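User: For a benchmark we're assembling, each entry needs the component sequences followed by a predicted structure for the full assembly. Here are entry 17's components. Please fill in the structure.
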Amino acid sequence: MSAGTLELVCPAGTPAALRAAVDAGADSVYCGFRDRTNARNYPGLNFDPEELAEGIAYAHGRGCKVLVAINTFPPAGDTGPWCLAVDRAADAGADAVILADIGLLDYATRTHPQLRRHLSVQASAANAPSIRYYRDHFGVKRVVLPRVLSIDEVSALVEETGIETEVFAFGSVGPMSEGRCFLSSYLCGVSPTSEGACAPANHVSYVESDGRVLSKLGPVTLNAFAPGEPAAYPTPCKGRYLTHGRASYLFEEPVALNALAILPELRAAGVTALKIEGRQRSRAYVTQVVGTFRQALDALARGHAVEPLLSTLRQEAEGGRETFGAYRKGWK
Amino acid sequence: MQTHQDLEDLGHALPVLAGAPPTAIEADGTPLALLQFGAIWLPRSVAHAVAVAVLRSVERAHPRLPRNLLALDPAVVHVIPNDLPYGFALAFGREPARLGVIAREAHGADATIRASTRVLVDLLEGRIDSDSLFFRRDLIVSGNTAVVVGLRNVLDREPLLLADELARVLGRFAPASRAIARRLNGWVEALLERVSAAHRVLHPREQDASAMFRAEIDRHRSEIAALTARLAQFEARQKRRDEKSA
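Assistant: Structure for entry 17:
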């Protein structure tokens, strides 16, 4: 990667997805262990220590870095699994750990000072004093910025903090309360912030009714899709709720962030890395999205336009729709 | 609810039809034709035995797969291809996995997956993304979603190619099966082309209008995205100018 280029950080929910990401042109992949220490704690997903070591060997052999996400928040009296995860990532030769909890950052700083530390989006650090605090006290080298900032705000943060910034470039978007969302816990007792799972699948069901498909989280019906209507994830933030007799998406519409068209602006803003969301998605998704972004970044580096790629990923987008999210802040 | 015992695997005692070294069947749709050929013409008990043999062969070739299936919670998933006369039941979790052939209307699954055979094979082989299919409603899941998510994640960890798995099971019969399947593919494609041509003759405007409409929408989408990007650049440039002049 040369100066002025954007690092492509890609999701790996499984060893197969890791290989797919590396082969499709990722500069870095991020992954997590098979437990609640990471924010994608779903059945059948993630890595055991042996798989992580194999994955790191595969990636390093092809010039790709591996970042380990340990980005949920340990509950009182049970910090052991989180510290163990940091130890295991260090032992396996990970290039960095992505952390959110301040106590765990302290543990990693003291126990593995040589292990690079990134600040997870789950830490929700969205202003300069906050980021500088993590930088100065825990030697954080990179911050993953929450999806609440416009490009101008990202640019200002880059200038004010002087550390690497990583921003989301593609994937599903929530109501943008990163690291603070407990919404699904009101319906099923579990949230991404505490147990690493938003709307966990064992509480989700689909029911056919009058030709429509109802998506339910626990006992609550979140949505009803007419035949042929694009579906959404069954998360409370993307429920369609009745107000004054009319059903509408009150919090967030089923739509995916896609920053392909604004890559030049993100680069100009001084961003270091682009993050592709989707560790819970398949290796087919990884291949498609990473490959497209690799093409776009290569085109950009050669001074070519990325326009021909703009509609490539619509099929992978939630609800079949795309947005620039907060980067444009069109609602202001 | 079905149990592992209910899915008593009829083919468990049958040896895998090995003898010759495995011969890969090209990924040209041949496995699909083989599946469809088998489903239509083979007696159900034989299809069942083949399904079981394929599962055992897959487990031998991908030793982490049975380990990962064992780690899941016990469940039975029915997989119902839209275009086959019967479906499959897969039981897994805490005990060795069992695969069986079932009637399309069978009950007792924890979860059921419905899609075309082509979609299901593409999913198994990691060529398409299940969430994208779900968004488009090309994949219908009912019952306990966690069971399906867990199974999807475990299968997606393995580089499965149905052609290779079938070739391993069929052993020395693979080349003959391949030839039959290719012939079948040819017949099916020719038939589909005839049906499609007839449909075009009967509904020319609908076909043309639909294709033109889709192309037009795609063109407008691309143009809007490009214009939006350019507008943002102009806005950023103007903002910098304003700041300088201020």
